[in-house]
Amino acid sequence: MALNYIWIAFFVIAAAVAVVKLLFFGDVEVFPAIMNATMESAKNGFEISLGLTAVLSLWMGVMKIGEQGGMVNALARWLSPLFRRLFPDIPEGHPVVGNIFMNLSANMLGLDNAATPMGLKAMEGLQELNTKKDTASNSMIMFLVMNTAGLTIVPVSILAYRATMGAAEPTDVFVPILLATLISMVVGVAITGAIQRIRLLNAPILITLALFSLIVAGMAWASQVLSREEMGIFSNNLANIILLGIIITFIYAGVRKKINVYDAFIEGAKGGFSTAIGIIPYLIAILVGIGVFRASGAMDWLLQGIGWVVEACGGNGDITAALPTALMKPLSGSGARGLMLECMQTYGPDSFAGRLSCIFQGSTDTTFYILAVYFGSVGIRNTRYALPCGLAADLASIIAAIIVANMFFG
């Protein structure tokens, strides 16, 4: 229901802004721009879905091998103490736990192409356990919030963009992104856990949080010891080695269990193709709403209003220049990426605004896209409180990013 109201709000606000711009500012191009945006956004949604088809088929095939080879079940048993606390409605040792872990791990490593298929596979498993097929379960919401929190340990693409833009130290945003995204995850899980009345202060969760803190500290140490070229090579290779290792390990497990890995891959790939086709309407719907909102000029007015408030409160005026990236990221990943690059090009990659825009890009996630695709893939229409919790995690990451950026670069 939340997405329904948000989607309607996009159009209502866009129409109101367009009328004001036409009547009071004589902007005769605003309505043609909105209509062009609807067509372009629908086209982009279809093209994104087609692009996902190959990736979904590949990774759904690999995951099917992992299932039949017993690797997913093994992961589920290993992670049971932790996930039993975060997802109390999932039976102990259920295979979906392994799928959830694979998805979150891919997100942490910045492997977007691998994360989406694994996430969709996890949603299928959660839907099998769901007693109300059109309504999001508590486990689904917790999983979605953990996705939208966007915990990232290796932000490879952002470091690469900074290097391309000529940053003196492309890796100088590495530690701030780690800190901001960790705060986002903690806040998102804490809010969702409070609503679901989950007791989060227990040994498995606290131990996991401590391990994440050690990983963050280790990556921070590596960023200080290695040169920017070495850090870029290290991050890129780490992500790809782990990715290839997953594929090889799954195939080995399948061969050892004497299953037909080729047939298993084909079976999973067929499911990936069907899933990609099924999410097209949901993806087009959310992208059209976002496109209309942006084309009307409502996004620009919102940013100007926030900038005025920030400066009136004595805040750093450079924050305003980076805010478009933060506000666009929950709506569109590609749009936020373009705004980040535009900010670095305008103000310089080593400016406060340039660095902050990179931290925003790395510490938030495409909340509306994730909800539309993941829930749409299993036919969920009533998302309950998933969207508010996801946006709360985004807000926490934005605030954390500003604080951390001031600590490191202010």
Briefly, what is this?
The protein is mainly alpha-helical and 410 residues long. Helix content is 80%, strand content 0%. The model has no long low-confidence stretch (mean pLDDT 83).
Task: Spell out the blueprint of helices and strands.
Elements: H1 2-25, H2 30-68, H3 71-86, H4 96-108, H5 112-129, H6 138-149, H7 156-164, H8 174-195, H9 203-225, H10 228-256, H11 261-278, H12 280-295, H13 298-312, H14 317-328, H15 333-347, H16 352-363, H17 367-377, H18 386-409
Characterize the structure shown.
This protein is an all-alpha fold. The chain is 80% helix and 0% strand. It is built from 18 helices and no strands. The chain has helices at residues 2-25, 30-68, 71-86, 96-108, 112-129, 138-149, 156-164, 174-195, 203-225, 228-256, 261-278, 280-295, 298-312, 317-328, 333-347, 352-363, 367-377, 386-409. α1 (2-25) packs parallel to α12 (280-295) and α8 (174-195) packs antiparallel against α9 (203-225). The chain is globular, with a radius of gyration of 21 Å. The mean pLDDT is 83.
